[in-house]
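Checked the freezer inventory, then went back to the computational side. Two predictions to log before the end of the day. The first one is the construct we discussed on Monday; recording sequence and tokens without edits.
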Amino acid sequence: MSYLDNIRTFVRVYELGSMSAAGRDLRISPAVTSSRISQLEEHLGVRLFQRTTRSLAPTDQGKTFFTAACDVLEAVENAEAQVSNMTDNPKGSLYVSAPLGVGRRLIAPQVPGFLALYPEVNMRLRMTDRKVDMTTEGLDLAFFLGNPEDSNLRIRKIADVGRVLCASPDYIERHGHPREGEALIADGHECLNLRFPGATEFQWRLITDEGPKRFRVTGRYESDDGDVLTDWALSGQGIAMKPIFEVADHLRSGALVAVCEETPPEAIQMACLFTHRKRQDPKTRLFMEYIIEKIAGVVRAS
């Protein structure tokens, strides 16, 4: 087994805090993961982890080796990136995350075209509406809507994405058609809310005559999956705030109707996150540029 593979395995075990999680991430069995760590420990002559049946923690030697191991892997990746740039033939697995709606409608449909151009790249696409941790999840690139909290990462803006408040004709017939944000609260409308980790209340930022204003909305329905909110809106359960590109077909067909037209939602930023090191990786750079070229006009036009 390659010494470098053993180091890569050690780093993922350290970052994820679990042999099994690292094995899943690296697509190897728990037995192989454990064997690689044991081989590395035997080679170094030290214990890198304290293991019990219920826990795994790095030793002092493991903590020291982790920092050096990350430097080794970064040096190797930089060397590979330089060679790949020279040959214009990127290789290896690309780990990408995106919100569910963005991933399903914008990113995933473009992957086959990218892989056709670069047949030695493997795509690992993770889609979720929860906040992701790029380091612990081993991501090369993370697409997102909104403003990220992690200032240590690099941001590449794609576009400002238009949003809409919308409901089904059935809901409007039963509950009325709110024309502006104040009516959402005054008339007790059922607002369908996207749940983010740590959120304690829901606020919709709408454009009024006095400028942007936050409206604290309430409702019995919430989910951490944006497509669930769309389904609830289509079935007449309430009003949802959605990126226009996600519901454009439903708006055109009349299955959903725009509401609060006098105080529309603010546009939201679509961008991607990456580390400075990952930006130098040709497959990361090429995929980012490829996606931006394919989708920027679509979301900006929404």
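The second is the one RB wanted added to the comparison set:
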Amino acid sequence: MMKASKNFINNPLPNVATESDYEKQAQLTKELVTAAQNGDTAALEKLCIFYEPLFKKEMRREIFYNALGFEEGLSLARLRFIEIIMSYNGADYVHFAGYVRCRIHFALYDEMKKVWERQNNEAALPADDSEANISALGENIIEREELAILLELALKKLNEKQRKTIKALYFEGYTGKELAEKQKITPAAVSKNHKQALNNLKQNIA
């Protein structure tokens, strides 16, 4: 296998000046990738070392290190790179570095979106987000709605005095004395209407 040039070791993406330089780099990349795919761990290790600066450059992007954390993102980039090496079909070794850059960038971007989605979903849930509590919350809402409907229907079955007494005492905030003054009746009469209304409501709602 061809030995890696010192320039390529120091910079996996050198600014080559001639077609010959591109061809040499492409040939070296092809030999290392082919060897790695055939089980040569040393070749795979060399490729990982050569491309490490690219991984770090991507992870210095603010959106990536804020969402993923520098070290975790770097580990993900390395893992994706190995997957790229092992599955590469050898279509274009001249532009292999650019291909790797795009694949690593979008792998990090996809992982960043997953992190954001998890954070948004967690923020949208109640503090106690167990299935049992969520189910109970839904049942309580339904029960309250049903009770409100039953109460409305039951109130309609009361006579006018009883209905006004319940609404004044429970919905409008009047005391028994205030209601007696408003209706110009005695507190005893208010109490009587109140008791009769409650008895009728119990019968109609039960």
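For RB: Residues 1-17, 137-142 have pLDDT under 50 and may be disordered. The chain is about 80% helix and 0% strand. Let me know if you want it refolded.
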